[in-house]
Amino acid sequence: MQYALMIYPDPDYLEAMPDAERAATRADYLALADDARYVAGARLQPVETATCVRVVGGRTLMTDGPFADTKEVLGGFSVVEAADLDEAIELAARIPAVRLGGAVEIRPVLAVEAGPVVPR
Amino acid sequence: MLASLVGFLGDVDKAEEATQEAFAIAAERWPVSGVPDRPVAWLVTTARNRAIDRIRRERTLAEKIRLLPVPEAVMDEFDDSAIKDERLELIFTCCHPALPLDGQVALTLRALGGLQTAEIARAFLVSEETMKRRLSRAKAKIAAAGIPFAVPEARVLPERLDAVLAVLYLIYNEGYRGRVDLGAEAIRLGQVLAALMPDEPEAHGLLALMMIHHARRRARFAGEDLVLLEDQDRSLWDAGQIAAGQVALDRAIALGGRGAYVVQAAIASLQARDRIDWPQVAALYRRLVELTGSPVVELNRAVAVAQAGDPGAALAAVDRLDLDGYLYLHSTRGELLRRLGRDDEARAAYRRALELATSPPEQRFLRRRLDQI
Questions:
Q1: Best B11, B92, B156, B159 residue to mutate vs chain A (most A CBs within 10 Å)
Q2: What is the separation of C-alpha A21 from the centre of its chain, rounded to a whole number of angstroms?
């Protein structure tokens, strides 16, 4: 089954990180993307670039900033294919953020029934 | 039986349903047709067949549930020894750290202990409705999050076993407070675990610890009042259970066990002897302090040092501890100061302990002590 690994890095740690370590961390992330079980993923721009959108009464409303105003912000995510939760945990534990004061939230991806393809 | 069905069906709910159905059919048929030669095999087979029927029906109804081709379980292929024992897989699933701790505890009691939901609810002082929700949330997460029905691989086995042991010990300690007899239930589960993992010293260590403690439960209270170890009526101790605990402890030590449960069991075992070797108890507590870093354990070590004949050294150790809000720090200080003949300070320490005591038996006990100085 597929799991989404949502990555919440520790912002303080990232800022204080020396360049050499930053490069090593980056290499670790790239290695994960090479894993056969990696399906998709992305690193996100900082939370200062976030915009929240709602549609109320037909009007599109926008607010500057993240949905939840917390210290922990989503820094990126990846989707992996794993046999079970234990395998997903093993993959999550290899994401550098988790040993650098951050955390990864694992959520199983809801399996969508592959319905018949309707020809247009 | 349940474990084998969960293994077969991959779903706790379905397995429970099928088990109940099989028992219902047995209750109907056995009085008429007699008990089959291999009752357990009969029950498992019947439960499997029922589950297969149900799955087939659901599948035809809603071509939806994707399941592997289900083999027809045929009675002739079956004998009791052929039923795969999958209780260990079930234990690791129920005690998976991805589940909330209260869910792990409830699920373990329900699926492995075979306790009814109402009994578990009573044991934890919550309503049956709350316990039902707790169980179904845990089961739903197992299914939705893909928590595996498997014994963890060697790399993570030690920490996952620790989690299982912690759940059993938690169940035991709930029983220790004296509601539904969860203590006996925890021991039964500990026996299952030790039998399934015969080479894991800490599994035997935990079993030994629980048994030796449990053996003394009737002597621990006189009416409502707490009785200290040295004042306990040893004729109330369950000698058979202490001996059984000792066997488990010997096994743990023979396997090279030196972990926290083994050390605690060794201490409990020494304290169950007629003459307690206090210097040895103090040495074991030192080891336990190294393992846990716990100031409460250090306090216990100090008590053993005092019992070994050195209340001065014990007091020095106690005074190094940062546990001012802890009742037993002050009651221990009071006792040590009394032995050292420093009565005024002893009374002050007991008074501080009394301020912190919340339960009436403890308050009565401390007042008695205070009066005796």
A1: B156
A2: 21
The pLDDT, as a whole number, for residue B218 is 87
DSSP class of residue B357?
Answer: -
Interval B251-288: pLDDT, tens = 999 999 999 999 999 999 999 998 999 999 999 999 99
pLDDT in tens, A36-76: 999 999 999 988 999 999 999 999 999 999 998 888 899 99
pLDDT by residue (tens digit) across B123-156? 888 999 999 999 999 999 999 999 999 999 999 9
In this complex, the residue of B146, B150, B156 whose CB is nearest that of residue A1 is: B146
- Is B195 an 8 Å CB contact of chain A? no
Q: Looking at residue A45, what DSSP letter applies?
A: P
Distance CA(B299)–CA(B284), nearest Å, equals 13
Q: For chain B, what is the mean pLDDT? A: 87
Chain B: give the shortest CA distance to residue A83, in Å: 8
Helix (H/G/I), strand (E/B), else coil: A56: strand
Residues of A in contact with B64 (CB under 8 A): 113
Q: Which residue has the higher pLDDT, B312 or B59?
A: B312
CA distance B39 to B25: 12
Amino acid at B130: T
| Angle subtended at Cα B321 by Cα B318 and Cα B326, rounded to the nearest 5 degrees | 90
Q: Which of A1, A85, A90 sits opposite B98 (nearest CB)?
A: A85
Q: How far is A21 from chain B (nearest CA, A)?
A: 27
- Inform me whether the C-beta atom of residue B64 falls under 8 Å from chain A C-beta atoms: yes
**Interchain contact A36–B (C-beta under 8 A):** no
Establish if B145 touches chain A: CB-CB under 8 angstroms.
yes
- Nearest chain B residue to A3 by CA distance is B145
Buried b (16+ CB within 10 A) or exposed e, B64-84: eeeeeeeeebeeeebeeeebe
